[in-house]
């Protein structure tokens, strides 16, 4: 029997299989276009379309049986917090308020748009999300979980977590019950994808929410009154190095990463929210006085790195030596003018033994006890070793 005849023939896709795959791929590519469009809306910094936003909010009030509110426009979420009244009603009355009725309306909408496809907004988190959605679809993965991961969760990470989260954490107080307008595109885009690709009967219920995400910033609905914030005047983001899924993070090296028309701003260094001085005036004396180690790290990087900081701060060099755990690199040990957790420390500068996601090897500073005078002993201490034991390492990581 010939090898060809003896081998079990590989099954070729049937025409119907190919048609189903083609439909899945076409829907996926359309979903990518829709996702990109919503991401652009989320990052827009043009003035709000006030007429469109007010029409959408009025329509939502009508859906919960409330008359049109009086509108108050403010130039930032921080300004809104000074304007939104705190609720003084007892709990049962609060939960009957217009904002809670709107929350129930939104929850009901998401469930109705999800149910025809098995409630995709609540698909369990995948253990191993596909790195390449098209490859996953060609391998037989169902479209629904791919859309949940690559539209809903992807926009949640890129917008709600990476942009709205830092803005919210920078506010001078709790937000109360509010909606994020342009920063709510994660669930809106996901519902919009299903509305456009599968044409649900009641999909028009999504339109007021979608119009708000296209038209305005954050908004606070209350009985008879709605406070609406303008969109930011500037939003600066960067791709996360080494990420293959389009992840973003706030970053601006010379000013605010998010700035609102009234001047209220959020500063961020490669995704870490920092005080304004870190970006605009990273002076050595400010760095020395900073108690938060992450803020201090960002300020030192903004200044030009640890070696630059050591130079401009006039740190006294205690000792230098080749790094036996990292051939070709040196260890430097310095006295520092600040304390760590209330105790005196010294600063050990070393090069990371492992490459970053972008292929570079970062120089970093490590605080060590003040009694070390030999940088090799200090490096060994960071690994729980003596200097002699560390010196025998082939290479550290």
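Sequence proposed for the structure above (397 residues):
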């Amino acid at each position: 029997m010939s090898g060809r005849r003896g081998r079990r023939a590989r099954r070729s896709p049937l025409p119907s299989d190919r048609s189903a795959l083609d439909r899945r791929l076409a829907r996926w590519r359309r979903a990518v276009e829709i996702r990109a469009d919503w991401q652009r809306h989320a990052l827009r910094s043009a003035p709000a379309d006030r007429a469109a936003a007010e029409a959408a909010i009025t329509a939502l009030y009508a859906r919960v049986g409330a008359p049109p509110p009086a509108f108050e426009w403010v130039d930032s979420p921080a300004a809104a917090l000074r304007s939104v009244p705190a609720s003084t009603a007892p709990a049962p009355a609060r939960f009957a308020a217009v904002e809670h009725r709107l929350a129930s309306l939104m929850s009901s909408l998401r469930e109705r748009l999800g149910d025809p496809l098995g409630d995709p907004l609540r698909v369990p988190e995948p253990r191993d999300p596909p790195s390449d959605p098209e490859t996953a679809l060609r391998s037989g993965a169902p479209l629904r979980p791919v859309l949940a991961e690559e539209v809903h969760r992807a926009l949640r990470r890129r917008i709600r977590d990476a942009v709205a989260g830092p803005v919210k954490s920078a506010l001078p107080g709790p937000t109360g019950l509010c909606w994020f307008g342009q920063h709510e595109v994660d669930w809106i885009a996901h519902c919009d994808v299903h509305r456009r690709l599968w044409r649900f009967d009641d999909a028009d219920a999504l339109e007021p929410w979608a119009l708000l995400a296209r038209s305005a910033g954050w908004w606070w609905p209350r009985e008879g009154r709605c406070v609406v914030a303008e969109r930011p005047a500037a939003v600066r983001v960067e791709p996360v190095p080494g990420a293959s899924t389009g992840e973003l993070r706030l970053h601006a090296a010379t000013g605010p990463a998010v700035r609102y028309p009234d001047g209220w701003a959020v500063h961020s260094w490669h995704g870490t929210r920092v005080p304004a001085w870190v970006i605009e005036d990273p002076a050595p004396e400010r760095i020395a006085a900073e108690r938060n180690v992450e803020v201090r790290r960002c300020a030192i990087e903004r200044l030009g790195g640890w070696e630059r900081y050591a130079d401009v701060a006039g740190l006294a060099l205690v000792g230098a030596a080749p790094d036996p755990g990292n051939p070709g690199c040196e260890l430097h040990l310095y006295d520092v003018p600040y304390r760590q957790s209330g105790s005196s420390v010294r600063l050990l500068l070393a090069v990371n033994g492992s490459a970053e996601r972008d292929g570079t090897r970062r120089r970093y500073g490590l605080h060590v006890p003040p009694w070390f005078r030999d940088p090799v002993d200090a490096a060994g201490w960071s690994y729980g070793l003596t200097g002699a034991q560390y010196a025998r390492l082939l290479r550290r990581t």
